[in-house]
Amino acid sequence: MFKFYQSFRYALNGLWLLLSTERNFRIMGIVCVIVNIAGFSLDAFGEHLNRFEWAILWCAMGLVFVSEGLNTALETTIDRLHPEKHQMIGRAKDMAAGATLSASIVAIIVGLYIFAPHVMSILQN
Fold it and tell me: Which of 25, 28, 47, 56 yields a CA-CA distance of 20 to 30 A from 62?
């Protein structure tokens, strides 16, 4: 049980480090708060997100958070192990950043796909 507790503490510390040191991670957190507020605000206009829509939104947001966390961990490790510039290291870091960008684009598309019909319904009424 102690090992599980210790692992959980390490994970929470990693999450705290991401939130306290990584600007992009904080921006993503703010965007997630806005998405949640927008989702709950639909109720005021007679629309609401169903459980499936919420689940898909949370999966998309989680994908972006996981991608950014892995990208940050990779970049931090590479910078520590090989601080001088190298073409292949630059490519690896660009690929990791590209994966995070891809996850973000997918999350935006998912958000638009879910929110657009609700917003259109509100605007038509």
Answer: 47
DSSP 45: G
Which residue ranges make up each domain of the chain? 14-124
Identify the helix (H) or strand (E) that includes residue 88.
helix 87-124
Q: Is the pLDDT of residue 85 over 90?
A: no
Burial grade of 123 (CB within 10 A; 0-12, 13-18, 19 or more): exposed
- What architecture does CATH give domain 14-124? Orthogonal Bundle (1.10)
Type of residue numbered 19: L
Query: What are the tens digits of pLDDT across the range 19-42?
Result: 999 999 999 999 999 999 999 999
Length of the chain in terms of residues written: 125
